[in-house]
Design goal:
7 helices, 189 residues, 2 domains
């Protein structure tokens, strides 16, 4: 029974550490760091650009370079690397598990021999079902916001202005993305 209690203690300790870190995320966001000083709109645009680059690349070394850039940004933004690495790899593990479970569920329903048209229908049904669930959740969140006084106009506590450092950041991101795209195109040849 001692072995089981050690497992429970470790599990509870890990859970408490996770929630403790989640509570300190606000503290991390208020630290003076590279990403914390940028306009949120600029951060969102650059994140979207890098995300699209990661989605459309076919090069594993390029993905490695992007991951190293993420680690460098975390370090320059004073985000603890141990926490960043742990969350990144846990997310990857969970995502791979979800994909594997979905594949196994589809395979168990239709068997291994399946025409691609039937596969397309299954994927379409899954997408439609996910859309329906997302829309229902969206409606529930919106109704909860209305019940708490939301009237359709978001109110920001801060007035954001794009500054010189934001333009420099965007220029640096654009140059980095162009360089990485060029590197990928030359690797394909």
């Amino acid at each position: 029974m001692r072995h089981r209690s050690c497992f429970i203690e470790r599990s509870l300790g890990g859970t408490l550490a996770f929630f403790r870190q989640a509570l300190y995320d606000d503290e991390t966001a208020s630290l003076p760091g590279m990403l914390q000083c940028l306009d949120p709109r600029v951060k969102a645009a650059s994140l979207l650009a890098f995300l699209l680059l990661a989605l459309f690349t076919r090069s594993l070394p390029l993905l490695g370079v992007l991951y190293l850039l993420c680690l460098a940004l975390a370090a320059f933004s004073r985000i603890p690397l141990s926490s960043f690495l742990f969350r990144t790899w846990v997310f990857i593990y969970l995502f791979v598990g979800i994909v594997e479970d979905t594949y196994r569920a589809i395979k168990s329903r239709v068997g291994s021999g399946m025409h691609y048209r039937k596969g397309q229908r299954i994927v379409t049904w899954n997408m439609a079902h996910l859309w329906k669930r997302s829309y229902q959740l969206n409606e529930q969140v919106y109704n909860a916001m209305l019940s708490r006084g939301f009237r359709g106009e978001p109110v920001s506590l801060d007035h954001f202005r794009i500054r010189i450092r934001d333009w420099l950041w965007l220029g640096g991101c654009a140059a980095t993305i162009l360089l990485l795209v060029y590197a990928e195109l030359t690797m394909r040849k």
